[in-house]
Amino acid sequence: MTRAHRRLAGLLVAGALAVSLFSLAGCAQSVDPIGRLGRKAAAKVAPGRGGREAAARRWGLAVPLPPAPAPPARRLALPFVVDRVPLPERQKVVFVTYDGAVRDPALQRMVRELKLPVSTFAPSGRAVDLRALPYEGQRAEICGRGTRPRLFRPPSGGYNADTLRAARSCGVRSLVLWRASMSARGDALRYRSGARLRPGDIVLARCTGPGTPAARAARMLRRIQEQGFTVGRLEDYV
């Protein structure tokens, strides 16, 4: 192999490694391991070695998150656009959601060990403002390549009347927004209304920002727990 060929091969290997590390570090609109782990968590995946108490301490929680109460036998009749599931005040449950697939190994481990039922949304292969598209363009983005999502989150939460019409035609049951989200620094919860969480709030977890995805998720869970809430699986309610 000539020196030029060896140099090219080295560049190709380095580039492939960089792409691999980038995909593990944040969100991607493709494979959905965190979503699958979240579904398994709702189905009582066994915690890691040392039990739930040890897992909670490992991720900086004072005590384990209690299991969410059983969802209603029949899904609630919700408005088409939802940022909060209307629950009784005694049901201290919120719902953690991510945009795109999060493939950070440490975050996957956290979800598995804490039995954390998170939901992910990957509406299309590109982050497009649906409001800039005509009806047919929005329908193509929402329906995707033959898939019919039951729950759909428009990129960045932007939608209009054509979005609602297109979503319904694709079989969407609810357009999912959020009531609270992590701050850009990942150290606090920000609310669209009020100054604290309410039962049924949908929380947007940030994929990017200071620190690792797992560290940001741990801080978010501490904020949720400090207010007396646990985490439920959104798909069981809507």
Report on this structure:
The protein has 238 residues and is α/β, with parallel strands linked by helices. It has one domain (27-236): TIM Barrel (Alpha-Beta Barrel), CATH 3.20.20. It is built from seven helices and eleven strands. It has helices spanning 3-25, 33-42, 51-58, 105-114, 135-143, 161-169, 213-226; strands spanning 27-28, 81-82, 93-99, 101-102, 119-121, 151-152, 174-176, 180-182, 189-191, 202-204, 230-232. The strands form three sheets. Strands 3, 5, 8, 9, 10 and 11 form a six-stranded mixed beta sheet that branches. The longest helix has 23 residues, at 3-25. The protein is globular, with a radius of gyration of 19 Å.
- Number of folding domains? 1
The DSSP helix count reads 7
Estimate the mean pLDDT confidence: 80
Helix/strand order: HEHHEEEHEHEHEEEEHE
How would the global form be characterised? globular
Beta-strand share of residues: 5-15%
Strand tally is 11
Catalogue the unreliable spans. 4-26, 45-49
Q: CATH class, anyone?
A: Alpha Beta
Distance between the termini: 60 Å
CATH topology: TIM Barrel
**Radius of gyration from CA coordinates:** 19 Å
